[in-house]
Amino acid sequence: MKRKAVPAPDPVIPREILEQAKKCLPTDKFRAPVKCSVCNGEVAPNSTEGLCWICRRLKISAWHASDHQMGAQE
Question: What is the pTM of this model?
Fold first, then answer.
C-alpha cells in the first residue's frame, strides 16, 4: 500500500519576499563564483582586486620585497 501524498502547507512568507531576501544576503552561496583575474581561480572573500588568495599573497609579497629594495637603494 502507498501512503497518500500530503499536500504542501501554504507558505507563511510570500515567495516574492523570499526572493528579495535571498538577493540581499551577503553570502557567496547564492552568487555566481567570481574568477581570479590572473589565474582563473576562485576569488578570495576579502579581495577587492578580484584576486584569488594565492595571487593576492604573491602581490603582497612582491610589494613587500620592492619596499625593501627601495630602502636599500637610498
Answer: 0.47
Looking up cell 604573491, which residue turns up? 58
Amino acid residing at 61:
S
Query: CB of 37 within 8 A of CB of 56?
Result: no
Angle at 44 between CA 63 and CA 17, to 5 degrees: 145
Burial class (CB in 10 A: 0-12, 13-18, 19+), 46: exposed
First to last CA, the chain: 88
DSSP state of 45: T
Q: Are the C-beta atoms of 52 and 45 separated by less than 8 Å? A: no
Higher pLDDT, 35 or 31: 35
